[in-house]
Amino acid sequence: MLSSISSSSLARLAVLILTLPACVLGIEAYCHLSGRYAATTYYFLKNAAFSDPTNAVFGDSHVMATSRIPEFSFYGWAGEQPEELNTLTRYLYDATKPGKIILQADPQWFGGYHEKRQKFVTQRNLINRRFPTVLSSAYYWETLRPNIVASGYDVANQIISSAHAQETSPVRSRAAAAEKRWVELYPRQDFNWTWLSPDDRADLTEVRVLEQNPRADFVRSTSAAEFEEAISRLVERGANVCLFRTPVTQEYLKMTSSIPDSRFAEFEGYINKIASRFKLRQVDFRDLPRNFSDQAFANSDHLLDSESIALWPLVARACFDDGRSVDEPRK
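^ thats the sequence. predicted structure below, dont judge the formating
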């Protein structure tokens, strides 16, 4: 009797042992192949885990995760914060030596709209690069059940929307109405920023500038410390780092000096000191041989996709191929 029970238990254990790897492989395949895992969140995580980070571009939604430069990987997340940048550089270059690195050098790294914004790029959410299975990501695990039994959800919407819980003001009310018109027009063929009225563009731009205005005392913030630590790690690992200021409209540029308590100029001083301290080359979009008129933009600080495709090879050449001294300032 005992022998029979023991044999039965061993048989069940053997079946479990044999079945478990098949279940894990099945779940792994499902996470790679299911359309429910096509959202930007999953694409970003898989791109970070399975791409070659030797030559790379880092930033926020101006960068995203689709490469625009041959032999470069792009690691950008909408609304990315310095803490997330630092996590990424630690994650990617633990066992890989960095080569050519382009780092977005924009004021919004320290913008007020980051307050209370949920971080997505965390060690917990990232896929283990040493044992690259998506099931090593807490985000995959936490969305697995909802994705199997119902439509998956995309935390990006939660991250972005939570950052816009701002106080109501006349300009924000007008901008909210203008944004609805923008959302309606944007999907149409050949859309560009000039399709909106000058008043709509002005309201949307003002709100954007206010949100991206660096926070007070940002230079001494933990965010600045994280930003500088990420750069220091790259430089110490031998990277050739170039700082790039991404395109914005002329109206955006003008408003950076006209809003109350503007700290955009303070950021320019800060990033210049960072470049000098680490001996980094700086490239400003205004240095590039391309016209960034309003027709090139989707909104006040994002280029149309066709323009972005044309932009990034120019940035790479300006960063690494023009022979200019890293200490030479922008004209």
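The two ends are 90 Å apart (CA to CA).
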